[in-house]
Amino acid sequence: MSAIILSMFLLCSPCTLTENIQNMCIEAGEEKGILPELLMSIIETESAGNPEAENNGCKGLMQVYEPVHKDRMKRLGVKNLYEPEGNIKVGTDILLELFEQHEDIGLVLDLYNGNSKAFYNFDNGILSGYSKRVLERAEELENYMESIMGYEMDKCMVCESPYVEIHHCIK
Predict the structure, then answer these.
(1) Three-state DSSP class for 47?
(2) Phi, psi at residue 17, to the nearest 5°?
(3) What is the pLDDT along the chain (171 residues), one digit of tens a residue?
(4) Which pairing describes strands 64-65 and 54-55: parallel, antiparallel, or unpaired?
(5) 151 pairs with which residues across the strands?
(6) Residue 17 DSSP symbol
(7) Handedness of CA 118, 123, 129, 135 (dihedral sign)
(8) DSSP assignment of 107-166, as one string?
């Protein structure tokens, strides 16, 4: 992503996250091949951008459940889920693993969110309220990027593959 476009996005973005958190999402998204707008949307939905958020044992920006992801944290060198960069690193790695296992974005988001009806929803073509909120917000952020660039993107800025479905890509 060019520095000028990135600066325009961060300065004028409708995103509610701090510039620092947006930068971390962009870096993590580029590293793992997941659109930064999706990461930003998940963070807005999960924690409203509060790195100290905690709910039912889930911690930080992306609401990572530490007991389940201790090995992942160790592998990634993350010791504190309240530290934004580490939390985003772990959350993005979880998403990448889910995308590698499942192609459907609704299913991936439901599994990320711990929805016990994830496979039922998938099998029945149901998009959960959580998935719908995340996807609609990611689309808003992505459309904003397109508007400041002055044209509709026909390929992903992360992996440069043609868009088949909006919202995600895997390298």
Answers:
(1) helix
(2) -85, 155
(3) 444 445 445 544 567 889 899 999 999 998 999 989 999 999 999 999 999 999 999 999 999 999 999 999 999 999 999 999 999 999 999 999 999 999 899 999 999 999 999 999 999 999 999 999 999 999 888 887 666 655 454 544 444 544 434 444 433
(4) unpaired
(5) none
(6) S
(7) positive
(8) HHHHHHTT-TTHHHHHHTTPPPHHHHHHHHHHHHHHHHHHHHHTS--SB-TTT-PBPSST
| pTM flag (> 0.85) | no
Q: Is the dihedral of CA 45, 62, 161, 149 positive or negative?
A: positive
Helix, strand or coil for residue 64?
strand
Dihedral, 48, 104, 152, 134 alpha carbons, nearest 10: -20
What tokens were used for 76?
A: 């990634």
